[in-house]
C-alpha cells in the first residue's frame, strides 16, 4: 500500500503538476526552493485546497477522483504547518485533550508525549501566551494524540534551536516506527532531511525533479553538510543558492579564518 498521487492544481501565478508514489511507511521528505510547491502539495494531500484535479489514493482508499473529493476530516490526516493553529483561548492541556478525544483507540498519553516534546511545564498556560517554538511543539503533540493515519509536517521545527530540534526529530522518527505512522516531512534543511527521511521528493517550480533515497539525492546535489537553507535551485546551471543567517555567516567566517591560519602554518 502507498500514497499515490496524479494531480494538477493551477493557481493564479503557479501550477503544481505531479505524479508520484510515496511509501505508506517511514518518513518521506519534500525538498525544493521557496515557491517550488512544497506547502501546496501538502494542502492538496490534506484536501485543504479546492479545484485540484486528478487522483489521490491512500491504502486503497480514494480521496480524490473525477467524481469524488473526500473532506479533510474524513481523510484522518494530521497536518502541522509553520503556524501552529492552536485554539488560542484554550490552555495547552485543553488543546491536547480535544485532540486525544478524536482517537478511536488511544495508544498515546498526554503525559508521555508532553515529557518527550518538552511541553510538560506548559500544560496550564493559554496557547496564545506561548512562544513560536513552544506552539510548534504543542502542535506536534496535538496531531500525534489524534492518531492520524498519515502525518504531514511543513517546516515543523523551524522556530526551534538546534538542540531542541535534534531531540524532537529523534522522537518523531521513533514514533513513526512504533506506530507504523507514515509521515511526509517538508524542510529547507538538507541535514534535517538526511537525518529524518528514508525517501525524498525533489520539487522545482511545481514539478517533480527526482524521487529516491534521501541521503543519495542530497549527496548528488552536493547539499549534505551545508549550513543555511536553500532559497533557489538552478538545475540548468547545476547551482544552488543557500541563505545564511547572521549567526551562520559568523560561524562560516570563523571556520574560514581557522583554515587560513592553519594553512599559514
Describe the structure.
The chain is globular and about 45 Å long. The N and C termini lie far apart (59 Å). It has a 6-stranded mixed beta sheet with strand order 6-7-8-3-9-10, with helices on both faces. It has 265 residues and is of the alpha/beta class. 34% of the residues are buried. It is built from 8 helices and 12 strands.
Question: What's this model, at a glance?
Answer:
This protein has 265 residues and is of the alpha/beta class. The protein has helices spanning 38-46, 92-100, 110-116, 132-145, 162-178, 190-196, 214-220, 246-264, and strands spanning 2-10, 15-23, 27-31, 53-58, 61-64, 77-80, 150-154, 183-186, 199-204, 207-213, 229-234, 239-243.
- SSE series: EEEHEEEHHHEHEHEEHEEH
Overall mean pLDDT: 86
Tally of individual helices: 8
Low-confidence regions: 250-263
Descriptive key words:
single chain; 265 residues; alpha/beta; Rossmann fold; six-stranded mixed sheet; 8 helices; disordered C terminus
Spell out the blueprint of helices and strands.
Elements lengths: L1 E9 L4 E9 L3 E5 L6 H9 L6 E6 L2 E4 L12 E4 L11 H9 L9 H7 L15 H14 L4 E5 L7 H17 L4 E4 L3 H7 L2 E6 L2 E7 H7 L8 E6 L4 E5 L2 H19 L1
Parallel strand pairs: 3-8, 3-9, 6-7, 7-8
Antiparallel strand pairs: 1-2, 1-4, 4-5, 9-10, 11-12
Helix pairs in contact: 2-4
Amino acid at each position: 500500500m502507498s500514497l499515490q498521487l496524479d494531480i494538477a492544481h493551477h493557481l493564479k501565478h503557479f501550477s503544481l503538476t505531479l505524479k508520484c508514489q510515496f511509501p505508506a511507511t517511514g518518513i518521506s521528505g519534500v525538498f525544493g526552493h521557496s515557491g517550488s510547491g512544497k506547502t501546496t502539495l501538502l494542502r492538496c494531500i490534506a484536501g485543504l485546497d479546492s479545484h485540484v484535479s486528478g487522483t489521490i489514493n491512500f491504502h486503497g482508499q480514494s480521496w480524490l477522483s473525477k467524481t469524488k473529493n473526500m473532506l479533510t476530516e474524513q481523510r484522518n490526516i494530521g497536518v502541522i504547518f509553520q503556524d501552529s493553529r492552536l485554539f488560542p483561548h484554550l490552555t495547552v492541556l485543553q488543546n491536547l485533550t480535544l485532540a486525544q478525544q478524536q482517537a478511536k483507540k488511544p495508544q498515546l498519553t498526554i503525559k508521555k508525549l508532553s515529557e518527550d516534546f518538552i511541553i510538560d511545564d506548559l500544560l496550564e498556560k493559554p496557547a496564545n501566551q506561548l512562544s513560536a517554538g513552544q506552539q510548534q511543539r504543542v502542535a506536534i503533540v496535538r496531531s500525534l494524540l489524534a492518531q492520524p493515519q498519515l502525518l504531514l509536517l511543513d517546516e515543523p521545527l523551524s522556530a526551534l534551536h538546534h538542540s531542541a530540534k535534534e531531540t524532537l526529530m529523534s522522537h518523531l522518527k521513533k514514533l513513526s516506527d512504533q506506530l507504523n505512522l507514515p509521515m511526509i516531512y517538508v524542510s529547507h534543511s538538507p541535514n534535517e532531511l538526511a537525518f529524518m527521511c528514508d525517501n525524498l521528493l525533489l520539487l522545482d517550480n511545481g514539478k517533480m525533479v527526482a524521487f529516491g533515497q534521501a541521503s543519495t539525492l542530497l549527496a548528488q546535489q552536493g547539499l549534505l553538510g551545508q549550513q543555511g537553507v536553500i532559497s533557489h535551485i538552478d538545475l540548468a546551471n547545476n547551482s544552488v543558492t543557500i541563505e545564511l543567517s547572521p549567526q551562520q555567516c559568523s560561524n562560516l567566517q570563523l571556520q574560514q579564518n581557522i583554515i587560513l591560519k592553519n594553512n599559514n602554518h
